[in-house]
Design a protein that fits this description.
Blueprint: E1 2-3, E2 12-13, E3 22-25, E4 31-34, E5 43-44, E6 49-52, E7 57-58, E8 61-62, E9 68-70, E10 85-88, E11 100-102, E12 110-112, E13 116-120, H1 124-130, H2 134-143, H3 153-157, E14 160-163, H4 166-203, E15 225-228, H5 229-232, E16 233-236, E17 239-240, E18 247-248, E19 253-254, E20 259-260, E21 273-276, E22 281-284, E23 293-295, E24 300-302, E25 306-311, H6 316-322, H7 326-332, H8 345-349, E26 352-355, H9 359-396
Parallel strand pairs: 6-12, 18-24
Antiparallel strand pairs: 1-2, 3-14, 4-13, 5-9, 6-9, 7-8, 10-11, 10-13, 15-26, 16-25, 17-21, 19-20, 21-24, 22-23, 22-25
Length: about 400
């Protein structure tokens, strides 16, 4: 690839391409087709013609979500083909306008809904990438209706973009198609690991009324002990304002993941908070359903509505797993307040929970989930890098 300066060509191009890109209306380059209008009496349960709607488009992919099927006899619109692009053009939520996905696999007996527009292109991968660019977002903003969240087909056709020659469209489209496949691969691996973790949190910890978990590591038997949470973990209240320690705040944690979203060592702060050490567990007591928790990888100061939990009758890794279980969340979510609910320490600390009596079993369970978390984090990081790469390329490989 080579760097370019001319505004009529992209900043980065594949070698061998020098011609300028020509400006044209989108409608001159692709074919548009309308979605199906149907009535409630046409809807059938689980059988018939599948109608793709906004709920079926997620992260640039076609997904099964709240599927709607209609009587094939009422269908008077085009069936989708591989390569077609389904675009949301009308929705109650303004932010969803322009959401789109390419049909990548054969979908027999499938149409798009009335609030969608279909695009058929000779170069579908290029066109799909074009709709991912910031330029498309700008065109949407210019053409949105004043009172209704929609883009008319006429306005969509007249959107102006620059296009390269056919061979370059093929090259660019192929590049983004491969990048999307790689992103999808890492996303599926990440999502499978997250699903596995949720399943194992249920199976490796006893369910309500049970004294042992459904699945147990080899070599361990006997009932788990039932003790108060304050005996499992103690709560630190050591407030400090030391200037040389990093601060963790609510917005620094990616909810439900236990990962930080920034390098907090670069964040200047003198705020007062609770001091924590490496391997302490931070639990966000404010709106606990947001699941803001973190197993400390270094020492610092927890600022705001956190409990800093230190190991007592259980290892740090096991405590970190325990606060993610359904049993603990049921207790933590019995919070005080309605607008800004907070977990009640008096309630939580005196609640009975089951943990392995054998410290070795605690360590094995904790290590298992720690390994899972590391794998999840690895794929999440790789996914983020690929998404950032795609965003950068969309800005530099299109005019």
């Amino acid at each position: 690839m080579a760097e370019k300066i001319d505004s009529k060509i992209p900043k980065i191009r594949f070698k061998g391409f020098e011609d300028g890109w020509l400006e044209d209306q989108l409608g001159e380059r692709v074919e548009f087709f309308s979605g199906l209008t149907y009535s409630p009496r046409n809807v059938q349960k689980g059988v018939g013609t599948l109608v793709l709607r906004s709920s079926n488009v997620k992260n640039g992919e076609i997904v099964n979500a709240d599927n709607v099927y209609v009587d094939p006899k009422c269908v008077n619109s085009k069936y989708v083909e591989v390569g077609d692009i389904a675009v949301v053009v009308r929705n109650g939520s303004r932010s969803l306008i322009g959401k789109h996905a390419q049909i990548k696999n054969r979908m027999d007996n499938t149409v798009i809904g009335a609030f969608m527009t279909g695009i058929h292109s000779e170069f579908p991968a290029f066109t799909n990438a074009l709709l991912d660019t910031p330029q498309f977002d700008k065109e949407i903003a210019k053409n949105l209706g004043a009172t209704i969240n929609q883009i008319t087909t006429g306005a969509f056709r007249q959107m102006m973009f620059r296009f390269p020659r056919r061979t370059e469209q093929t090259k660019i489209g192929g590049y983004f198609r491969e990048l999307d496949l790689l992103i999808g691969l890492h996303k599926r691996k990440h999502d499978k690991l997250v699903t596995l973790k949720q399943a194992m949190l249920q199976k490796l910890f006893p369910q309500p009324g049970a004294t042992t978990p459904e699945i147990r590591f080899k070599g361990f038997s006997g009932e788990w002990g039932e003790i108060e949470f304050k005996q499992i973990a103690s709560r630190s209240t050591q407030a400090t304002s030391e200037e040389n320690l990093p601060r963790i705040e609510y917005e620094d944690i990616i909810s439900g993941t236990g990962r930080l979203n920034k390098d907090i060592f670069k964040k200047p702060s003198r705020k007062v908070g609770i001091k924590f050490e490496r391997s302490d567990v931070l639990f966000g007591k404010l709106r606990p359903y947001l699941r803001n928790w973190w197993l400390a990888e270094f020492g610092g100061i927890a600022v705001g509505d956190f409990w800093v939990l230190k190991p007592a009758a259980a290892t740090s890794n096991l405590i970190y797993c325990l606060i993610q279980t359904a049993a603990f969340e049921r207790i933590a979510n019995q919070s005080a307040g309605s607008k800004m609910p907070r977990s009640d320490w008096n309630l939580v600390s005196n609640s009975l929970l089951r943990i392995p009596i054998n410290i070795e079993e605690q360590q094995i369970i904790g290590h298992y989930f720690r390994t899972l978390d590391e794998l999840i984090s690895k794929h999440a990081t790789q996914l983020q890098k690929l998404q950032q790469l795609k965003f950068a390329c969309l800005e530099k490989m299109f005019v």
